[in-house]
Automatic annotation (TrEMBL):
The lineage of its organism: Bacteria, Pseudomonadati, Pseudomonadota, Alphaproteobacteria, Hyphomicrobiales. It comes from the Bacteria. InterPro entries: DUF2849. It comes from Georhizobium profundi. This is DUF2849 domain-containing protein. It holds the Pfam family DUF2849.
């Protein structure tokens, strides 16, 4: 079974979010609850049905992921873009935060 996470878009600002282990919507994919076996997948599928009626998020979807170097990596390009931000400018979106963190680490 492929690893799966549950993703959606938050209605208040459109940001891509992922369902965390505590049932709250997280802004980074690495904070997502990962279904690693059938029982966990069933739990995510149930959460997907409940979230469909939730007024906090829309476009609730199960996503296949794999772990790479301690981080979650979506297998579909669409989900990779949602996880990192716009593809046209690296100084915008979530990838800008990563660049800033990397620059700070190099400077230190």
């Amino acid at each position: 079974m492929a690893l799966k996470v549950l993703t959606a878009n938050r209605l208040s600002d459109g940001i891509a979010v992922w369902l965390g282990a505590d049932g709250s919507w997280q802004e980074t994919i690495d904070e997502a609850f990962v279904a690693r076996h059938e029982a966990a997948l069933t739990g995510l599928q149930d959460a997907e049905k409940v979230a469909a009626f939730d007024i906090q998020v829309v476009d609730v979807t199960l996503v296949d992921v794999e772990e790479r170097d301690g981080h979650l990596y979506p297998l579909r390009l669409r989900e990779r873009i949602r996880a990192t931000g716009p593809t046209v400018r690296l100084d915008l979106g979530k990838q800008a935060e990563t660049l800033a963190d990397d620059a700070a680490a190099i400077a230190a």
